[in-house]
Records
---
Amino acid sequence: MILDVRVVSAETILTEAVDAYQSALGEHLLAAYALGSLAHGGFSALVSDIDLGLVLSDPISSRDARTIQAVADAQRAKGIELGERLSVFWGTPSTLRGELQGGRFPALDRLDLLENGRLLAGTEARAGLPRPSANELFITGAEFALEYLAGAPRRGRARRLRGWARLALRRADAVQEVRCPETLLARGVRRVTKLVLFPVRFLFTADTGQVGTNEAAVAHYLADREAPAAALVAAALSWRTAPPTDEPAATELLRDQTLPLYLYYIDDHITRLSSLGQDELTRAFTRWRERLVR
């Protein structure tokens, strides 16, 4: 099998990061896992993040967060483009079981760990960890969307939200990007594909209770005959590996279909959130909708 050299580079970044964490944490590090597209497939050197999951031994220490952050910062500071996309999730068996607070392993990432995590170092540490409920996955995704796509940070929640990505989506700019395709395109294909495909992935998780690759989420979305923006969603998936070469056509597609995609996603979630009695989140999504159509 011939490996893409960029994928090998991503694997090298993971290996170097794990080595650094083993040195910094010693026996406190039980296991390290590749997560995301480097675990379940679909990695794109153009747009994908490099997701690493760490399971530390109990008890959790007040020093752990500083150590995790310091090592991640040192790895990103090497100046390698892919290395700057390193995103680290971590916890202990007790925090992953929900018995104690701490760490950084939101629901969707915990599910990814359970279903797709690829052991890189240490010994298997997933036995007995519970699967997040469908409602937990859905609500966590809604909170994440508000924080990073709606420009509406919710007090006390930011540290718990997943960094699928350490998105590259600035909170204050996301609404403007939906409304102004020139602004969005100017910020690069990674930003474009994330802004278009995140709602598609959130809808997939809401419908199925699964993590879902971009490919699976897009296929699920396109199977819905009533869903708008099919051409844009299909194009965004292709742009993950081959950026658009016809910028005027891409601009026009984004102008015509990004807002309908977001309104479809938001209206879907308003209905679901209301049915779950999530009144605060329902109001936040309603305000988000109003900002988009203002």
Note: DSSP finds 13 helices and four strands in the chain.
---
Amino acid sequence: MTTAIPAYRRVLLKLSGEALMGDKGFGIDAPTVDRIADEIREIHGLGVQMALVTGGGNIFRGLAAAQSGTDRVAGDHMGMLATVINALALQDALEKRDVSTRVMSAIEMRSVAEPYIRRRAVRHLEKGRVIIVAAGTGNPYFTTDSAAALRAMEVKADILLKATRVDGIYSADPEKDPKATRYDRLTHRKVLELGLKVMDTTAISLCMDNGMAIVVFNLNRPGNIRRVILGEPVGSTVGG
């Protein structure tokens, strides 16, 4: 049997909160988390160093709350705490599969997570632990996409993987516009010029300035994380 050879040594995987709720309208779907954990365990078994960044939109969205009258800073802090809940759910699923995992939070809460310290995060990766980075950047007005781009740069990831509900980048939302066209490859600048909703502009700009490629792919198709890691043409690529 031929041994699979990963295309990347160290990756950062951005998981949206919506990815964890499956077909539910809210919260965490246990079977979905279990499936994601199974795939991460398989990738980890190939010797790939993995950092995860979790979103919190399945529980709370700070921007949406601000539009409803909640103070933006308070709303963003509430959203950051939601990402920690998701991170703990992922950690539980991974450790049940004997994958050594550390949750690291940008907001200090030592009873449930380590504080995020870049050198410590890199050391965990070098020791073969999966790290789950929660609470965004710890600052309001920054999304978890921006946090993913920042952490990918800090831990010197080879690639930033953005897991979504669709199979790549489209000219419009394919769930709403059947005429939307799909892009296989784009530059960071083209994404910004076209105003494509891949990640927020801060995240795209940060990746562009630091030469970080992004692969956007469908998380709901089983095995896609592995395919991306092995270098197969899955989803859409920005830069690279």
Note: The first strand starts at residue 10 and ends at 15.
---
Amino acid sequence: MSYGKCVIYSDIPENAEAADGVGIPFRNKDIDDLAAKIKFALANLELCQGLGAKARERVKKEYNWDNIVSQTEEVYYSLFR
């Protein structure tokens, strides 16, 4: 996602949370659904480019190490107040 590429991901909760609507989910352990989603992506390259751009922005916003460190510090500091 950080490379601005459209992701096709298994719909397990962990992946769905990370992607949060900026990728194409397929049913977990369903190779036929995966194949269908790959074909869909190849037929809709403009959509995939848009999803990739949104994915990159999501990573910048939600998985930025500076923000993560600050949030972690806040949790630790709150324990001593």
Note: The chain has one domain: 8-79.
---
Amino acid sequence: MYKRVLIKVSGEVFGGKGNGLDYEAISEVARQIHEAYELITEIGVVVGGGNIIRGVDSEKYGVLRTTADYMGMLATVINSLALQSVLEEKFHIPTRVQSAIQVSSVAESFIRRRAIRHLEKGRIVIFAGGTGNPYFSTDTAAALRAIEINADIMVKATKVDGVYDKDPKKFKDAVKYEEIRYSEVIEKKLRVMDTTAITLCMENNLPVLVLNIFEEGNIKNAVLGKKVGTLIRA
């Protein structure tokens, strides 16, 4: 069983079957996190913002990449606050939102020592605002925060049940990997995470578990060390 876990939740998960905020989907994410939390596991969460805005898409319409990326960071703050509220109000779990960009009215600024102290006190820490810098994805932010808080593993929770050799939505013969090395992910150009995030995990020997968060008990089973999804490691 893992003692400290960083869960990266894709923004598209928060959008449910569309865009914006799907509160049923958010409640399901919160419920699964609650199941893992009850195992007395210290949990950090990084949430994407793709359900609200994608920086790369905005460029097509004349929005500067740097501006679009900052808009994306603000979107992650919105998602983080939604998740925080559901975790606290519905599941009665103490939480803190720490942001890499200053939004002092609604979140603390990210301070590594304070984040670790919150985890030790049994609070779930939701890291918002990405890395605080443009040109970096929330996957990279998740890898960075996982390393900073000394997480045992990073769980990438998506709508797909693992890593495949090609897109399973487009190809019926796509093959799922039970386990794969960091180097293979990079060499085969598997679009699990961006190269910066994978390289960061590889250099710091941080294992990554990719799973479908909407499959019953997946987060709990991941924390227990059971076989789910695809494990990426050295």
Note: The chain has nine helices and eleven strands.
